[in-house]
Amino acid sequence: MTEERPRAAVQSHELMLALVRGPALAVVTLPLSILLFTLSLVSIVLLPIGVGVVTTPPTQQAVRWYANQRRRLVHAWAGLEVPEPYRPWPRDLRSGVVGQVERCILLLKDPATWRDMAWLSADLTAGFVTALLPPLLPLNLQLTKGMLEPTREMLLSRRVTELYETRHDAVDTSAAELRRIERDLHDGAQARLVAMGMSLGTIEALVERDPARAKQMIAQARENSAEALTELRDLVRGIHPPVLAERGLPDALRALALRMPVPVEEDIELPGRFEEPLESAVYFAVSELLTNTAKHARAAKVWLDVLYVERPDGSAIRVTVTDDGRGGAALGSGSGLQGVQRRLAQFDGVLALSSPPGGPTMITLEVPAGHAAE
Questions:
Q1: Side-chain-side CA neighbours of residue 107 (13 Å)
Q2: Cα atoms in the 13 Å half-sphere on the side-chain side of 197
Q3: What would the pLDDT profile of 325-363 be if each residue is shown by its tens digit?
Q4: Which of 99, 112, 102, 104 is nearest to 51 (CA)?
Q5: In this structure, which of 31, 53, 213, 291 has its CB flanked by the most CB atoms within 10 Å?
Q6: 3-class DSSP state for residue 264?
Q7: Which residues of the chain have pLDDT under 50?
Q8: 314 forms bridges with which residues in the sheet?
């Protein structure tokens, strides 16, 4: 009896909410659905005479904004996640009239555009009725979710696109890295070794005629050899740090934190070793984040937290870098964080940023990790 009373109270509360939410939803959404469906239909009909090319993109953008508001409403009222199904815009999308035509074509080719149209037609009929009758409000929310969430084919198409982009980024990154190594070898260690070879030739000629001068040049050659060795070690460390290869990711990250000019308080809990490419990606991502913080954040202290977490779809390495700096960091063009995103995307990793003006800044990255080797 005691369990039935709270259950009845919950049901009564839900019914009262539905009595308020349902009619309000019906009154607000019916005119919007009718207006957007009509504008969309007219824009598409006017495509053959060219007017639709101009009106379709802004109209569909309005439809997508409206659909996203309804997705958020479904999540707020029913706790149901409704991911966006829209294809991302290409990076090289042009501006002007040509860009307008490209946007129109991309919108018409996107299956989500036509699903939005179908949902609008259903929302102004069945959606209106199920919202107007409070007991049927859950059915309205389920209808919205079913018609606005991406289909399996859309998810597969998006995944293929993401894989193509990450593969393209991986190829570009690898080519850039090879060029960097070649440039560093040419301008650094190779130049010093050539200079050392020339010095040894001169020393050979001077060793009998001017021993004092020969001794000076031998000392200089020794310094050049030491500097060349240091540059080669730095170059190798940039490709794959020895501490990472020998002692694993936790010790490599601790060593990295110790080298930072800003005090770094680290908390690293990882169960063992992971695949070498994954450890390298996480290491260099953290290195970039800490370096950016030291250069730009004007922080007095940085916190580095690295955890091994279990998710519904598997395990992952989660890294959080927090600083007490000035904030205002962004993921826009030219930001070093974009390079970190591209590096992580090759492993299906994600990056999230919270950096309000005035700070603090918190950057979280998460990379699927599989099983750790003991």
A1: 25
A2: 6
A3: 888 888 765 566 777 877 787 788 888 888 888 888 999
A4: 104
A5: 53
A6: strand
A7: 1-3
A8: 311
